[in-house]
Amino acid sequence: MSLSITSLASIAIDLQSGIAHPDRFARLIRTLRQLLGSDATALLRYEDRQFCPLAIDGLAQDVLGRRFALDAHPRLEAIARAGDVVRFPADSELPDPYDGLIPQHSDLKVHACLGLPLFADQNLIGALTVDGMNPLQFDSFSDEELRLVGALVAGALNTALLMEQLENQTPAAAVVPAARKNDGGEMVGLSAGIEQLKKEIEIVAGSDLNVLITGETGVGKELVARAIHSGSARAANPLVYLNCAALPESVAESELFGHVKGAFTGAIHHRTGKFEMADNGTLFLDEIGELPLTLQAKLLRVLQYGDIQRVGDDSSQRVNVRVLAATNRDLKQQVLAGEFRADLFHRLSVFPLHVPALRERGDDITLLAGFFCEQSRAKMGLKQVVLSAGARELLHRYDWPGNIRELEHAIYRAIVLARAGHPAGELVLEPQHFQLAEVVPQTMPAAAADLTPGVDNLRQATDEFQRRVIVQTLAANGSSWAAAARQLQLDVANLHRLAKRLGVK
Predict the structure, then answer these.
(1) Rounded Cα distance, 261 and 291, in Å
(2) Contacts of 234 (CB under 8 A, 6+ apart)
(3) pLDDT above 90 for 239
(4) Is 68 helix (H, G, I), strand (E, B) or coil?
(5) Where in the chain is the domain with CATH 1.10.10?
(6) Which residue from 156, 305, 360, 503 puts its CA 20 to 30 A from 443's CA?
(7) Mean of the per-residue pLDDT values for the chain?
């Protein structure tokens, strides 16, 4: 069997059609899988010494969220280093990155594997991988035929990258996903909400506007701030982080603006504040809604006039700082309640961005689960981490009050539990490895409706309800007792005592 002129022509036509390139690539690899008779096909994009799946066919959906670092995947490294078609022998000892990830053959290892590196002007831009369970599956195709397929796909991928470059109006060296940042973080997802967010980040990153980032705890607001900074003209300068909720009011002014020696008891030397550290760069103020009103006035002055004054210093100095702020609170309501200055709110929210909750992102849950599985696999030195169909269904059913942060922790805990019985390091995560039943869905009425106690067990039912509420609120606030206490309108010491009595601690 070989590829006919008609087959190759159909590939070329698929690639040149006018649909958006993600759809075009998805259709292409479906066509290739049929033509080559493979069990799984994937188109990967190369960047930062790793391969990122753009389109897959025959593989588990979570593969789209995985990022395959060359250092951790010798087969993909071999493809990246090759200048030609790579055929791996059926008895190759190199682990295949897709072992366990072909749904119909999850209990079998890949036996036939082809890799086609994709080049543009001698620069590696991606790869096409073709896998099969039959060791002789691709023997009938010549290298010449496969090279032609690779050339067609490489041309289409390069065109798509150039189009992305023109749309974003970025230099060629910066043609990377908008939410990608140099220190390893990435905004993973293909849902409508996250795609819209990525577009808005691209729009605002190139400006110098202040940005207010809103969203629930754990949705990734800091990641959005990093994406804005890395896409801005300030990217070569510092991004300075400050958590306003962790600031005692007595030292908050010093943290923001610095102090001089002798300004107050304990000020034994000069201190540089966050604004000075961020000069010509970006200052990210997390949980801005927690900033005391007295400091809000001083922050407003910096935003208006660009000058700061160290505590205990009579002179002022000018700084050039872009401010990004984030909050999980409703600042408009805080303004109405007199807890947040209206003029500061308007200064900060010149360009507001909202990060959607995980439960609103549909299939992104699967992609993010795959991303964290691969990340944990590499960190823990495991051979393989696969999500079973039952585990994927469980993750989709769950409400994720703690959002992405909770998902990341849930994946890590599941891997730790699964690894206890599999020292060889080839893990399949099953529903029983996830401890999600401890947190009830976010709808309080449903939780309350489950409690239909008789008079005799009213105290027990009350304790159980309080226990559920505390656990749920902790999860929704990233396990922060202080934040949970604020949401429950309790003193944090009282919350600790109550949790201890109820057995939560």
Answers:
(1) 25
(2) 280, 281, 282, 322
(3) yes
(4) strand
(5) 444-502
(6) 503
(7) 84
- Contacts (Cβ under 8 Å, ≥6 apart) of 4: none
The residues of the chain that CATH labels 3.30.450.40 are: 5-168
Instruction: Please tell me the class of the 5-168 domain.
Output: alpha beta
Residue (of 329, 325, 321, 320) closest to 352 by Cα position? 325
Task: Give the CA distances from residue 121 to residues 5, 117, 128, 136, 149, in Å, rounded to whole numbers and listed in that order.
Answer: 26, 13, 17, 33, 17
pLDDT of residue 21: 60
Q: What's the rounded Cα separation, in Å, for the pair 403 and 401?
A: 5
Report how far apart, in Å, the C-alpha atoms of 228 and of each of 187, 207, 231, 264 are: 12, 9, 5, 37
pLDDT greater at residue 268 or residue 30: 30
pLDDT band with cut points at 50, 70 and 90 for residue 268 = low
Residue 129's DSSP bridge partners are: 42, 115
Residue 241, pLDDT score: 95
Residues ≥6 apart with Cβ < 8 Å to 2: 140, 141, 142, 145
The pLDDT, as a whole number, for residue 2 is 62
CATH architecture of 444-502: Orthogonal Bundle (1.10)
The predicted structure's pLDDT at residue 337: 92
Amino acid at 219: V
**C-alpha to C-alpha distances, 373 to 66, 71, 75, 379, nearest whole angstrom:** 8, 16, 19, 10
pLDDT at 108 exceeding the cut of 50? yes
User: Which pLDDT score is estimated for 80?
Assistant: 96
Q: At 415, is the pLDDT very low, low, confident or very high (cuts 50, 70, 90)?
A: very high
What are the tokens at 47?
């960047």
Cα separation of 123 and 118, whole Å?
8
Greater model confidence, 160 or 191: 191
DSSP 435-465: --TTS--S-HHHHHHT----GGGHHHHHHHH
Number of residues assigned to the chain: 505
Query: Quick one: tokens of 331?
Result: 């600042």
Strands annotated E in 219-375: 239-243, 282-286, 307-308, 317-318, 322-327, 351-354
What 350-353 contacts at long range (C-beta under 8 Å, 24+ apart), as own/partner pairs, is: 350/209, 350/210, 350/211, 350/212, 351/204, 351/207, 351/209, 351/210, 351/211, 351/212, 352/211, 352/212, 352/213, 352/214, 353/197, 353/200, 353/201, 353/204, 353/211, 353/212, 353/213, 353/214, 353/224
DSSP character at residue 433: G
End-to-end Cα, the chain, rounded Å = 65
**Domain 359-433 falls in which CATH fold?**
Helicase, Ruva Protein; domain 3 (1.10.8)
Give the confidence band of 172 by pLDDT, cuts at 50, 70, 90. Answer: very low
Structure tokens at 418: 């699964």
Q: Domain 194-354 in CATH: superfamily?
A: P-loop containing nucleotide triphosphate hydrolases (3.40.50.300)
User: Which DSSP symbol is given to 311?
Assistant: B
124-155 CB burial, b ≥16 within 10 A, e <16 = bbbbbbbbbbeeebbeebeeebbeebbebbbe
Domain(s) of CATH 3.40.50.300: residues in the chain? 194-354
